[in-house]
Amino acid sequence: MKKISLGLLGAGEVAQLIHLPVLRQLQDRYDVVALYDPSPSVLSKVGMTWNIPRLYGDVEAFLADAGLDAVMILSPDQFHGTHARAALQAGRHVFLEKPACLTIADLDALIAAHRASPLVAMVAYMRCYAPAFTQGQKLLGQMDEIRYARVRDIICEGPWYFQNWSDVATPEDDIPTNILTAGRAARLADLKSVCGDEASPAILKAYEVLTGLGVHSLSALRVLLGAPRRVISAHVARGGLQINALLDHGDFITNYECVIDDVVRFDATIEVMSGREKLDIHYDTPYIRNLPGRTIFQQSTETDNTIQTFGPFYKDPFRVELEHFHDAVTNGIPVQTPLADATADLELCRHIIAAAQRSTP
User: Fold this and answer.
1) What is the largest CA-CA distance in the chain?
2) Do 210 and 355 belong together in one domain?
3) What is the mean pLDDT of residues 252-271?
4) Strands 266-273 and 253-261
5) Structural domain for 32, as ranges
């Protein structure tokens, strides 16, 4: 099997807790040969822990590494477009963590760069690769006309989970000030370009939550049932950490619920109902490796009621998507989560925010 020489652009918690452990399991497919991070302390610790031979504190030098076939973009969201375009221009295939970008304009520029290139680029919507999700896609074909859908992201944040079992290398106040300043300015500019210059802190935070967490579920909803036609209404509360939205799918409504708080549980679920069937797709926290997903399918008649559980599925969705990326690069298969499809997800996030601004004091 052909190996891909891979570089990671960013060595934060997602790299340390999720991608590097999975890449170690896939050593028959990947050689992790290079790492970039703006923090010298993080770069050194992560490079040493994972035996990565070439370490870079400069993005241009990292992308110029002649030994790279592909780059995993794990930098802060506001830099995704810039870094992915630079990687394509340097001749590297691109595995892009979600969200693809924070703004449609940035994503459009990235899509144009990709179309001018023969290289592979895919968005890492890992929930679309989860075995529980693909099982749900199969079962959806057995259902009658959809009458209602409900999507939930009711969670406790990742640090509660991983601080109990893992040490994550964090910057020792050694990221150059100009990089920090530029990053904060770029992020705020992106948020305000979508939400408006006068947007409240709660609205700005809600857009960060939607693009950082909600886009996982919203992209999976789109793949499963199609993009909503419009946002009927939306509301933001608790400083942007609670978001509710009603989405119009034409013949049915989807209710989206998002709550981030400190009760320790992870309820990330897609529920789809017809007249006599109900499909539930359940995800667990990604911050503990190989927790199982499951799919539950209920069928009711006038005289009978059956509930089938599929799973638990222990194969890690992150592993599935990296196997898929390898196949796309080495065998030329089309990617299942292309850059262009991410446009609909950013548009939906923007419309939810606009509806919330109309209804939230």
Assistant:
1) 69
2) yes
3) 95
4) unpaired
5) 4-124
Per-residue model confidence (pLDDT) at position 361: 64
Q: What is the domain-level CATH number for residue 296? A: 3.30.360.10
What tokens appear for 25 in the block? Answer: 């399991």
Structure tokens at 224: 């499963």
User: Is residue 333 included in any domain, yes or no?
Assistant: no
Prediction pTM value: 0.95
**What is the pLDDT at residue 54?**
97
Residues 174, 275 within the same domain: yes
Could you tell me if 194 and 105 lie in one domain? no
Q: What is the separation of C-alpha 291 from the centre of its chain, rounded to a whole number of angstroms?
A: 17
| Domain-embedded: residue 244 | yes
Percent of the chain's residues with pLDDT above 70: 99
Quick one: 161 and 75 in the same domain? no
Q: Give the C-alpha separation, 307 to 191, whole Å.
A: 44
Same domain for 64 and 212, yes or no, is no
Q: Is the dihedral of CA 203, 204, 206, 211 positive or negative?
A: positive
Please state the domain count of the chain.
2
- Tokens read off for 53: 């031979």
Q: How far, in Å, CA of 231 to CA of 228, rounded?
A: 7
Helix (H, G, I), strand (E, B) or coil at 98: coil
Whole-angstrom CA distances from 106 to 68, 89, 146, 163, 257 are 25, 16, 35, 34, 27
